[in-house]
């Protein structure tokens, strides 16, 4: 069942973290933050919504980084129930798609909860002051990739944030698989 997160809570603060990456390094928010903005995205390996756009995410992440935007991906799914989302599989996924950003594992799910992540993919675009300016979709893709010439909504928003510090007023929520929370 598809899940859509709420609309952007403009100005909400980001949340610090220390998480292991697929490269064996530990990363904090300060390590991944960019001088002109930061994109924190929650993704996972098995979700068809993520898989339909993963190569586009990598393509656009390069352009964001060139504009001074830091980019990081976090997977928080319960790997007991979804072993394909485990750290070894994440490392293979990052290699397979040539990730140009850290891919971090949130085993405790505390980071995903702090951010209020609800689905994969879920995008949180912050300005240089660490204030939320974008919580929308990547583009018009769903479980299937949208047209090749689809408006690049996330990229446009992050470039605008890098330039002005503010995100677009109109945002269409992302859609994807629910975060696979651990049983209480």
UniProtKB/TrEMBL annotation:
Q: Can you tell which superkingdom this protein's organism belongs to?
A: Bacteria
**What Pfam families does UniProt report for this protein, alphabetically?**
AhpC-TSA
**Thioredoxin domain span:** 8-160
Protein name, entry field: Thioredoxin family protein
The organism of origin for this protein: Paracoccus spongiarum
